[in-house]
Amino acid sequence: MEDCWQFVPLAEVPPTLWRNGGGSTRELLAIPPDAEWRVRISVADVVAAGPFSTFPGVERWFAVLDGEGVTLDVAGVPQQLGRGGAVLRFGGAEQVHCTPLGGPTRDLNLMAPPGKGTLERLDGLPRLVAVRASTLVGVYAHSAPASIGSSRVPPYHLAWRLFPGPGSILAAGRDGFLLAATP
To answer: What CATH class does 11-112 carry?
Structure first.
């Protein structure tokens, strides 16, 4: 069962331009796959300062993949984020303004119901992850390969699957992210 992973290559997902002209988003996964999604994983290219769209009823996780980073002003509190740095979690209804530092950035985003998701950087060491029933688990490998279970995840790919029952899985990578969400 470990090898039942779905793979989404970043290069095969067309970008959707933002209404404010500040960037674009590549939606790697939405569950369910319609406008009423409960979990969404995406990669965004931010080219100009501007507000984020609000998504009431979800929590958001944000991490810088490429570029010099951003300042996210979340409800009046500025947070500076850079490549290799912290993952920021905030409410989807929050007013957020993004300012790229030193040019465009590429960022990873997870949106899920409050208290039902996590996004963590992989630090190169294998990590055993306990999985609850009905949970989506995935790894996004950015510039280096990663692994999940016995499957290799090529760079710039998301590997994901839904676990129907509880279990555990081993994840590893040095420029990647481990994510979990319960839709």
So the answer is: mainly beta
Q: Please enumerate in sequence order all residues whose Cβ is within 8 A of that of 77, keeping only pairs 6 or more positions apart, or say none.
A: none
- Kindly state the DSSP code that residue 11 receives in the 8-state scheme: G
CA distance 149 to 170: 5
Q: Specify the pTM.
A: 0.94
In the CATH hierarchy, which top-level class contains the domain 116-181? mainly beta
What single string gives the DSSP state of each residue in 99-119?
EESSS-EEEEEEEESTTSEEE
Q: How many CB atoms lie within 10 A of CB 148?
A: 26
**DSSP characters for 125-150?**
S-EEEEE-TTEEEEEEE-SS-EEETT
Predicted local distance difference test score (pLDDT) of residue 1: 43
pLDDT at 2 over 60: no
Q: Which amino acid, residue 52?
A: F
3-state class (DSSP) for residue 20 = coil
77-113 burial code (b ≥16 CB/10 A, e <16) = eeeebebeeebbebbbebebebbbeeeebbbbbbbbe
Instruction: Tell me the sheet residues that pair with 22.
Output: none
